[in-house]
Each structure stands twice: as structure tokens, then as C-alpha cells.
Amino acid sequence: xxxxxxxxxxxxxxxxxxxxxxxxxxxxxxxxxxxxxxxxxxxxxxxxxxxxxxxxxxxxxxxxxxxxxxxxxxxxxxxxxxxxxxxxxxxxxxxxxxxxxxxxxxxxxxxxxxxxxxxxxxxxxxxxxxxxxxxxxxxxxxxxxxxxxxxxxxxxxxxxxxxxxxxxxxxxxxxxxxxxxxxxxxxxxxxxxxxxxxxxxxxxxxxxxxxxxxxxxxxxxxxxx
Length: 225
Prior knowledge:
Largest sheet: 7 strands, parallel
Number of strands: 9
Shape: globular
Number of helices: 6
CATH topology: Rossmann fold
Number of domains: 1
Strand order of the largest sheet: 3-2-1-4-5-6-9
Helix content: 25-40%
Structural class: alpha/beta
Distance between the termini: 24 Å
Order of helices and strands: EHEEEHEHEEHEHEH
Oligomer: single chain
């Protein structure tokens, strides 16, 4: 019997790529989605629960699988209220990781951000860093936190800051060599591909910076070729 994957954030840019890849992967026979809104995909593999993600703890009995993919994340422009922002970027991943411990799920793969730092003066970076610290402290056997740079891809909504960032990054990308490679923009599909590889393999790092995410994705594609 195939494995069960749990996905949070299936309607987002990276999460949507991930769900489509899981549907085409024979390793998984069931995909459980916890979302605020439907992903819009009808498939025999998918079980979708439309819930209040701030109340994830109430769905403990349904939160059962072999691997959890947490693709949750918001932005300052989309969520200007810092309290709600913290509940999204910190509260939901921590709640999901806690349920992994309670339900003996030994693989948790989560998207954070490059620059995440619990001691940062920048609220966004600090929130991501605090989330990482708590998730790692739970000691889930296979925990991987991806730290992408600027994520690119076709979003449903327009984000001015991201649009400007893409233009600047596109112009300056050739300058990012050596240690600066991690700051190059990264495709959402690349992140999803790396997450799939991490779900089936072990890796030497728990917090994985952007350039390593790209290397893992290449490895996954090469193995499937």
C-alpha cells in the first residue's frame, strides 16, 4: 500500500505544484489536504478538509500520515496585522509539527525563508526564525526546513514588491556567484521537487538554504530520468 502525504498550503504557489506532483507519484496512494479553501482538484487520491487552520489542533484524529508538507506562508502586504501574520507563519507550522509528534509522524518538511533568524530585528525574519527553532526542538526524526530566496512563479494575485524584486534580481542574477548563489530567485516548482526528494531520502542538513534546494531538485529529476 502506498504512503499518505499531508499537505498544508495546497492552494499556494509551491503547494499547488507539490500536490500535482504527488498525484503523479506512485509512491503515494493518499493525499490529505488541510486548507481554508478548496484546491479545486477532484481526484481519488485526494481527501480535502476545509478548516480553520488556526484551529488545527482540533483535527488531531484526522491528521495521520507518513509525511507532512507545510507550505504555509504569507506576506506583509497580504497580512499587515502582525498578530495574524505571526499566527500564520509561526502558529500553523508549529501546530502541524506538534501534531506530528503526537501522532508519531516521523517526517516533517516545511518552507521557511532565507534570512530566518530568531534574533533578527526584522519581524518577518524573526518570526520565521522562531518557528524554525520550535520545530527543530520537537526532534521529529526527519525534519527539513527549506529556506528559499525570492520565490518566482505564476501567482494568482499580483504582488508589487515581489514584481519589483523579480526585475531587480533578473538584472543582477549574473552577479550572484559563489556564496551569493543562494540569493538568486528560485522557482516554486523547484522547491516542490526538492520537497518530494526529501520525503523519500535523508539529507545532511535540516535547514536547507536556497542553493542547496536547487541541487536537491536537480538530483531528484536526474534520478527519475
